[in-house]
Amino acid sequence: MSITPDSLMTLEAYARFRKTEKPAIVAHRRLRSVRLGEHLNLQFEDERTIRYQIQEMLRIEKIFEEDGIQAEIDAYAPLVPDGTNWKATLLIEYPDPNERRRELARLIGVEDRLFIEVEGQPRVYAIADEDLDRENDEKTSAVHFVRFELSAPMRQAVKAGAAVKLGCDHRHYPAHVQIAPETLASLAGDLA
In what order do the strands lie in the sheet with 173-178? Predict the structure, then answer.
């Protein structure tokens, strides 16, 4: 199902929905989040997480006019996976502002060094920030949008239960983690 202005709730309806459904949405987002080491968090998006994000932005900004609603859809809809990929929001998390500034300077290019490794298949690197001009020689951004494009054999292997590793081979942040089975089951649902 694609996200259209007609498929979104009014601000009033969303306010009622949010009161009862927010815990379920938070649990869904937590299920689809993968921590990579101490400081990288990838939140894998799907139609449900993006729909929630759009509704939240409309609520926060009190947007109810058609052009504003469409602008929010246009901004976030590209983050919904299309059946051949996984899309994620990468959050680089350092609570201390001084440490964050120092580490963002050290981690320039980290978003391009993220990879997915499906058992028995070659490594696939992230395609980062496709719609944004992010060239900054002094530091990387604390938020990036990444896409992992999976070949047909990779998608078939994931759906058949293959293990999947998420990793980073940036020289200042080498890390990898096996994606938990329950998270992988949710991500497999994104694949055609």
Answer: 124-125, 114-118, 164-170, 173-178
Q: What is the pLDDT of residues 111-125, one digit of tens each?
A: 999 999 999 999 999
Structure tokens at 123: 């490594």
State the alpha helices, DSSP H only, in 32-180: 47-61, 66-76, 97-106, 152-159
Average pLDDT taken over every residue of the chain: 94
In this structure, is the dihedral angle defined by the CA atoms of residues 186, 81, 149 and 39, taken in order, positive or negative?
Answer: negative
Could you give the CA distance from residue 36 to residue 17 in angstroms, rounded to a whole number? Answer: 32
- In three-state secondary structure terms, 101 is helix
Q: Are 123 and 154 in contact (CB under 8 A)?
A: no
Say if residues 25 and 78 touch (Cβ distance below 8 Å). Answer: no
Is the pLDDT confidence value at 57 over 80?
A: yes
- The 3-state secondary structure of 5-40, one letter per residue: HHHCCCHHHHHHHHHHHHHHHHHHHHHCEEEECCCE
122 by Cβ neighbours in 10 Å (0-12 / 13-18 / 19+) ranks as exposed
DSSP 3-state of 109: coil
In whole angstroms, what separates CA 14 from the centre of its chain? Answer: 23
CA gap 134, 92 in Å, rounded:
15
Q: Give me the percent of the chain exceeding a pLDDT of 90.
A: 92
